[in-house]
Amino acid sequence: MVRVLITASGGGHTGYAVAVAQRLYNHAELTFIIPKGDRWTESKVSKYGRVIEVSKPRGPRDSTAKLLARMPGAFIESLRKIKGSYDVLVSTGSNHSVPPAIIAWIKGLKVYNIESSVRFTRPSLSARWLRPFSHVTVLQWEEQLKIHPKGKVYGPLYELPEYEPEDKGYILVTGGTYGHKILFDAFSKLGLKNVVLQTGRVDPEPYRRTHPDWEVFQFDPDFGRWIAGARVVVSHLGKTVIDAALTYGKPVIIVPNPEWTLTAGWEDARILAKKLNAVVIENITPETLLKALEKSESRKPPSYPDGAERLAQEILAMT
Asked: pTM (2 decimals)?
């Protein structure tokens, strides 16, 4: 049985790890490398295999100085913790994946390095850094060959449905792991009643006080049930919109977070919106959100080949 290491680096990166693990489960021995202290990621992946922890050098708002200061420690942790006879490491992105992937390469493992599904105009830093150490740079869209000419297109990596999709009438608003306060504040002014809000690391209490009729929470490891029951999903430029559209067939509104300078940008959002038949908002106001909600109601997302299944089959064929 092939032994596979998978970095599950938080947020959408953990989503890629779950998508691949779902296809490999019961066919491969899986071990996940998660950010130290990330209990949400642990709850998502521990059902599929063993978990080890390595520090994440930088978050989306941290400075380059912090990255450089913390990176050596992450390499040392990776060297100590990546033990045993593994065959493959699947890197799901973010700076957290870089030290484990390079250590795995040094130890002779094949590295599959996944580029984010929201990157079209320029490669992510982790994908660029890991190119020289990768057996394959895994691409999710044909358009990504422009930024990774030597990559291989598998198709989008989305999670398998855990619930039957249905329309329970509510609007799901989410900002991912770190939250999206600009979006939440604008949405709060609309006066809508049937709303489920996932705030991530943004304080949920102001929204609970203002909207006692809303369902408001920071995290839920069983987040798929909220996507499955939504009428429409409003989210930042991240993997949630992929799962909402492709796993559960939901209309999607993409609202990039202007505070995130290290992530994909407006042009990436426009391209992804076309791929998903989604609405994208660039000027975040209550008025633009209301218009986007009206536009999104009649939009059906397309279907695409299962990239996670194709990647899993290639890994399993190594045995």
From this structure: 0.91
